[in-house]
Amino acid sequence: MNRLIYEECGVFGAWMETPTAVPLTLFGLIALQHRGQESAGFACVQVDSISHKRGMGLVDDAFRGLDLDAYASHGAIGHVRYSTSGGSINANIQPLVFSGRLGPIALAHNGNLVNAAVIRNQLEQQGSIFQTTTDSEVIAHLLARSTTSDLDGALVSALGQVRGAYALVMLTPERLLAVRDPYGVRPLVLGKADRGWVVASETCALDTVGAVFEREVEPGEMISISDQGVESMPLFPARQSAFCIFEYIYFARPDSEFAGRNVHRVRRAMGRKLAEEAPCDADIVTGVPDSSLSAAAGYAEASGLPYETGLIRNRYLGRTFIRPNPEQRDQGVALKLNPIRGVVENKRVVLVDDSIVRGTTSKRIVKMLRNAGAKEVHVRIASPPVRHGCGLGIDTRDELIAQRMSPEEIGKHIAADSIAFLSSKSTVAATGLPRKSMCMGCFDGSHPVKGEEF
Predict the structure, then answer these.
(1) Nearest in space to 183 (alpha carbons), one of 108, 102, 86, 112
(2) Prior bond to 182 cis, omega within 30?
(3) Is 204 a residue of the active site?
(4) How far is it, in rounded angstroms, from Cα 390 to Cα 447?
(5) 166 vs 9, 114, 139, 150, CA distance in Å?
(6) List of E strands, 143-227
(7) Half-sphere exposure of 400 toward its Cβ, with a 13 Å CA cutoff?
(8) What burial class does residue 212 get, using C-beta atoms within 10 Å of its C-beta: 0-12 exposed, 13-18 middle, 19+ buried?
(9) Domains of the chain
(10) What is the pLDDT of residues 240-251, one digit of tens each?
(11) What is the pLDDT of residues 19-50, one digit of tens each?
């Protein structure tokens, strides 16, 4: 399979005193659109049942013309998706909505379960019939088969059987639930809104809907939000924290914060450290829009070289990486980026990017800059080489150029005049967090959860 480096999705939930949860959720999903662009969906409470609406494409495409009056509700959850597990088909769009002994439930999941295939096979042999090809449906079936009499107990039973990463938002007619895996691999935050509460994958979504950041959902914690207020319940003991460092490097929006660290500032610090480790005799520094711009600014600041906008992004296209097949990704590079000849012509250019996965995009960009007249192109990567796969909500399997080439060979392959990667030590130092608190498995193979996906 052609799999690169992708974040699976973004989740959002709202529980309000007024019937405004659906528009609030849609605004939150738009703020999280960078986390997944294949499909979008929401579910909402309507009396004692749960209604839902789902569609392929961006949030605006999936819900264009939606009659919000028909979905007036005080409780809603939503999901934007990239398919790391299961194909890009309508049946796999989340939230999943199901009903049984525990009543109607909607579920939206960010992450990957490394033992989902094994559990699914066992359940199918016992008579379970699956409607999707996602690992998220495994959780739904485990909940339905639990012998406990309440949802909290069923969650302990179901999630106690799965291994991997999950940030879940769930909805019942009585409450909104937010659950994070014991390692805290994927992010999940709680915010206080005007006359209600919201949960989201990133703090940028809280800002968008006018909510105030309260705190992060702790690893192993479940937060229950109802008309009675907010209640915290430890479902499982927290393990050694393993927050995905790629949230800082690439996935998150620059205006988001994790562990009190602003993503833009962390990326800028990575760029400064990169300039210290890999200086370059050049004329200008430029970054690859958008996730690399902060690192490029940091590199320019530390090196004393002028920062220039050398590449323009077509903002009517989504992220090149978040595309379902390699042909569309390759076409997306040419459509998405265009060099500014007047900036790069006859210049020695330092090109800063956040990471290299296949090398295809980097090779195309280097060629673009040369065709626009750049005399030299020196590539600087604000993270270590990606050498290992990951099954915790990111696809980094197959086609990893750093698995088969040294940094020098990669530089030759992409036709750069020189190349350098940020060291693991400096990558961690830029976050201001201890190494033991983060998952860097895609760099060094040290995944917190072992499974067949690795």
Answers:
(1) 112
(2) no
(3) no
(4) 8
(5) 11, 11, 10, 21
(6) 167-171, 175-180, 189-193, 196-200, 212-216, 221-226
(7) 18
(8) exposed
(9) 9-239 (3.60.20.10), 264-432 (3.40.50.2020)
(10) 999 999 999 999
(11) 999 999 999 999 999 999 999 999 999 999 99
